[in-house]
Structure formats: C-alpha cells, structure tokens
Amino acid sequence: MKTVIKTTEVYEFTELNKDAKMRAINNHINFLLETLPYDEMVINMQKACDKAEHMKTPWFVGSYVYEYCLAEIMEELEEYEFLADGNIYSDNIKGV
C-alpha cells in the first residue's frame, strides 16, 4: 500500500491574476449558458440571449452575458475557490 498526500494551493477570486479572473468569468458564463434553461435565467441573462437572437449572432451570446450580467457573475464567483489558472477548485475528488 502507498499513501500519497497532495497539497493544492487555492485562491479566492480576488487573489487571482487578470488572466485567471477572465478564465473564471468565461468558464462561469459558459457553464450558465450550457446548464440553465431560458426560463430559469435571471432577467439580464435572458436579455443577453434575446439580443444574440435578435442580432442573429449566437456566437456573441457570451459577450452579451458579460456585458449585461457581470455584477451578478462577480457576486457568484465570490462563493468559489480557484486554482491559480482560474479553474474552480473542487475537493470532491473521485476515490477519496
């Protein structure tokens, strides 16, 4: 048998560098867009989706969400811990 102890540095959102913060924001926007049904989105996110549809530019929906919902996203990100690269840290590792 072998015992391995791994140490991982985790950060609050405010401690991340600029690139890591942008990765965290973009990852969170993508997660919300992929998982939330339209009718469960906050009003500003619905407006962003509506704008993308109206402009016929679905590839810009993430930019519109950033523009319309940044305050809400920043508030949500305060609840997580992150790795240095901006990915969310999870201590729910399989097998542990």
Task: Describe what you observe in this structure.
- The chain has 96 residues and is mainly α.
- The protein has a domain at 13-77.
- Helices cover 49% and strands 0% of the residues.
- The chain contains three helices and no strands.
- The chain has helices spanning 18-35, 43-54, 61-77.
- Helix 1 packs across helix 3 and helix 2 runs antiparallel to helix 3 (61-77).
- The two termini are 15 Å apart.
Features:
mainly alpha; 96 residues; 3 helices
List the helices and strands and how they pair.
Blueprint: H1 18-35, H2 43-54, H3 61-77
Helix pairs in contact: 1-3, 2-3
Could you tell me the mean pLDDT? Answer: 92
Structural class category: mainly alpha
Q: Classify the beta-strand content into a percent band.
A: under 5%
Count of helical regions: 3
- Estimated helix fraction: 40-55%
Uncertain segments = none
The SSE string, one letter per element, is HHH
Largest sheet: none
DSSP strand tally? 0
